[in-house]
Amino acid sequence: MVQAVQGAKVVVTGAGGGIGAALARRFAAQGARVVVNDLDAARAKAVAEEIGGHVVAGDASSVVDEARDALGGTVDVWCANAGVGRDGGEPGQALREEDWALSWDVNVMAHVRAAHALLPEWLERGSGRFVSTVSAAGLLTMIGTAPYSVTKHGAYAFAEWLSLTYRHRGVKVHAICPQGVRTDMLDASGSAGDLVLKPTAIAPEDVADALFEGIEQDRFLILPHPEVAEYYRARAADPERWLGGMNRVQRQWETTR
C-alpha cells in the first residue's frame, strides 16, 4: 500500500475507460475514496460501481464543486486525465478552428480551471496532489496531429509551472507522459498511431503502476515508457538531428497513407 494515498479523497477525470479507469481502480485498491468523472455518464457509473466510488458525470472543467461535495467537502488528489485527440493542422488542409478550440479547452484549460479551484484550499492547509496525464507528445511531438501535440506541450508546461511554484508549500505535482497506451484514443489515432505508437503500446494498468511508483519516489516526471527519457535528452542536445529523424518518420508515414 502507498501510504500517501491511503484514505485520500481522489477525483479522476475521463475515468470511464482507458488510463482514467485504471487510475481510479488503483486509487480505490489503495484505500482512497474515488470520484469517477466522465462525459459518458453510463461508463462513469459502471467504473464507480465496480470500485465502490462516486460518479460525477460531465465536463471535466466544471465538476470540481460537485466532486468536492461528493467527497465530503475536500479533495486531496486531482487526476486531470480527460483528454481529446484531434488530427489535422497540415498546410493545405482546411483549418478546423473547432478542433483547436476543443483541444485547448480539454487538454489545457480543464487543468488550469481545476487547479484554480483547488489551490486556495491546498495552499491554506499545506497539502494537495495534482496528477496531469500529459503524453510523450508533450515532451516530444506526434506526427499528424498538430492540435494534440501543441496542447499536450501546454499541459506539460502548466504541470511544470505548478510544481516549481508550489512544491515548497506542500503541493505535489506529477506529469504522466506515456507513448502508446492501448485505449480507444490509440485505436482512433489511425495510421500515424499504427506506425509510431502501437508497436510499443502498453496497457493502461502499466501507466497506473508507473504513477504509483512515482508517487512513492516523489517524482514529478512519470515515464511509463522509460526510453522517452533518452528521446527527450536527444531532442534537447541536438534539435536539428532530432527534427531530421522525426521528418524521416513523417515521410515514412506519408508513403503508407
Provide a descriptive summary of the structure in words:
The chain has helices at 18-29, 41-51, 64-70, 97-125, 146-166, 184-187, 190-196, 204-217, 227-237, 239-256, and strands at residues 9-12, 33-38, 54-57, 77-80, 128-133, 171-176, 221-222. It is of the alpha/beta class. The protein has a 7-stranded parallel sheet with strand order 3-2-1-4-5-6-7, sandwiched between helices. Strand 1, helix 1 and strand 2 (33-38) form a beta-alpha-beta unit. The mean pLDDT is 94. InterPro entries: NAD(P)-bd_dom_sf, Sc_DH/Rdtase_CS, SDR_fam.
- Return the structural class: alpha/beta
What proportion of the residues form beta strands (DSSP E)? 5-15%
Low-confidence sequence ranges? none
Major sheet characteristics: 7 strands, parallel
Family: Belongs to the short-chain dehydrogenases/reductases (SDR) family.
Organism: Streptomyces erythrogriseus
InterPro entries: NAD(P)-bd_dom_sf, Sc_DH/Rdtase_CS, SDR_fam
Protein name: SDR family oxidoreductase
Structure keywords:
257 residues; alpha/beta; 10 helices; 7 strands; SDR_fam; SDR family oxidoreductase
Layout of secondary structure:
Elements: E1 9-12, H1 18-29, E2 33-38, H2 41-51, E3 54-57, H3 64-70, E4 77-80, H4 97-125, E5 128-133, H5 146-166, E6 171-176, H6 184-187, H7 190-196, H8 204-217, E7 221-222, H9 227-237, H10 239-256
Parallel strand pairs: 1-2, 1-4, 2-3, 4-5, 5-6, 6-7
Give a brief outline of the structure.
It contains ten helices and seven strands.
